[in-house]
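Help! Submission page says 'invalid entity' but I think these are all valid:
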Amino acid sequence: MSHLASLRLAFRRHGRRCRGSRAGAVVLAGGLSLALAACGGVGAKGGTPAGGSAGLTTMGFGLPDEIATTRVAAFQKAHPDVKLTINQGQFDEQAFLSSVASGNPPDVVYLSREMLGTYAARGAIQPLDDCVAKQGIATGDFYPAAQQQVRLAGKWYGMPEFYNSIVLLVNDKAAKEAGADPAKIDASDWDGLSALAKKMNKVSGGKIERFGFYPKLPEFLPLWAKANGADLMTADGRTSQLTDPKVIEALTYANGLLKEQGGWTRLKAFTDTFDYFGEKNPVTQDQIGMMLTEQFLITSMANTSPDARITVLPFEDRQGHPISNVGGNAWAIPKGARNPDAACQWIKTMTSADTWIAAAKARAAKRAQEGKVYTGTYTGNAKADKVIFSQIVRPSGHEPYDNAIKTILAAQAEGLVVPPSPAAAEFRTAWLDAATRVMQGRAEPQAALLQAHGEAQRALRGAG
Amino acid sequence: MRTRPRLRTETRWAYVFLLPWLLGLVIFQVGPMVASFVLSLTDYDLISSPRFAGLGNYAEMLKDPKVAAAIGNTAFYTVLHVPLAIAIALLLALMLNRITGRAAGFFRTVFYLPSMTPYVAVGVLFLFLLNGQAGLVNQFLGLFGIDGPQWTTDPAWVKPGIVLMSLWNLGTTTIILFAALRNVPRELYEAAMIDGAGPWQRFRSVTVPMISSALFFVVIVNTITSLQMFDQVYTMYFGSQSAQQSSGDAALFYVVYLFQQGFQFLHMGYASALAWLLFAIIAVITVIQVKAGNRFVYYESEPPGAAERGTR
């Protein structure tokens, strides 16, 4: 019976027409994977479709704006002979794995850098060292932290795109009501942060009206651990350090912030009502006092709420040094890709400094036409960012955002990452679940992290 | 004697007509089931060739605390959902059965309409409705002075919230029970009324026995679908990173865990073993239900030999 459920699930999730399915693969894959493998293919049937031109199929990438379309146009101009098929939509791990298992993968895939380690270890994506050498990709242009995220065992498995860093976003109104100067909030003073959070927090009639300080647990646990001087994993990505007393202390503190402000279950329900990327975002609605956030929320707010009274500060460790965890996406070439050469050309074009600069100019022109603020594009390519933020981004006249750009750029330089790991997905699930159990009051930090450590180590051993 | 050759011809034709279904059964169900059993004995990550692992995956399941948690969550849901769903569907079917005229078709359509809503949309919709801070469910409870729980974030209330959502979609069960109610002979009610039976007695002594086979069917089908619950729960609590943080493993249903193992952690051999464990659990529960049900279900069949006598 469970097979039926799997089949039903497979067909629901894959709303697309089966193409190029291979009966042989179907029989071999069998069971749960069988139907998925049969319908998962998204690659072109051949590397050189009718007409003699080469084909290139992408997965996980869309064309939502000029940042994407400008770069795609640059590729098409440089390689007019390549027949490009963009399967728009977010990366879907089931569709991707099914397509690889059935021998019909896309030529190039766009996915979170956090997932690369797992796929690289299993051989689902190819090393790109030959591609880098053949196309002369300027890997030195990428930020070191982004480079670290796409390398495993000394080999390139992806090329980074975008560079998200974490900053402290303060709602000036809330800070002033709490008697604090928003520009002088000391993120390294944990007692001070806790006291300010309580002052900013507003609860009325059992309902939370303002979340004083949103520490972004559980997803920012690596940042809190780093602020307390610890890493969740060893640098080689092979050993969990979740039971490090400093990690336990960081989780205990950040969870304490939630407890003091009404408890996680209430706060989470409250944050679920937020419209982060609309005009009624939680800062302009005075629903948040301050929060840790990726910089793209600020970029979005510059577009929707240019007059918002905000202050953006770097997050700091307890010694007062700025720190930030970075994230973003990457381009990778799956195992069995039919046109790896075109895929490599695509990757080079999409991530090169020149293409990013052209895209940033298009975005700046559009924002100017709309009379809106352009706060820059954080590309992952340091060479491109240097040009974008020195030549394209101009003072907007909206001081909070102009200052925010400086803070974000400074935070980028302090980028840290959770090392790539062959069991990245399981490791992440283990610590996320542990932190969630703590926040829900179902486990103490030490016990939860001990359990997560056991789960992570089992997964890491299993991943070889 | 003369009927034998004709019967053989008819039998042959019957098999010819059944052939497409039989082929489908073998290719799309039996084949994958056999293959997944073979995979359950291997270490398989979807990318590399499977490596034989014997009963290792099954032994691993015994040590995996998340398997026990997922079974517990799924069992909790099933035990709450099945009786509630059938009770409410029966109530709706009884109401439908009393409506006559043009309105009958309208209400049948309305009652079935939720079944046409995509599960993913239902999941998202109920995330909004059940939100503890601003959801309509708690606003409704507030009208009676009840401070509603945090349905979507409190681990103690996540599963009851999912049960509440599941009661949205009772169209199929309602229609099956409604059809059974329509087949209850009116003479039986008339005879019961003449004997002085009240509404409750008529319901208990006439209606329930006469629709017991349909009730039995919907109990079995609802139990199986409950044990296989996936779509709405995945949409609500695992569809995005943010959603996953709401519940931790409070909403980790069995098939969700199976999916995670297969497609997030690339343990397809282990996922296949999980699938076979679920198959075994469902088979055992269904056998128990059939054995128990046979004692209570009334089948309206003709006495042995009656059919033959009728044809002569």
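Support: the input was valid. A stray whitespace character was the problem, and the output above is from the cleaned input. The first strand of chain A starts at residue 55 and ends at 59.
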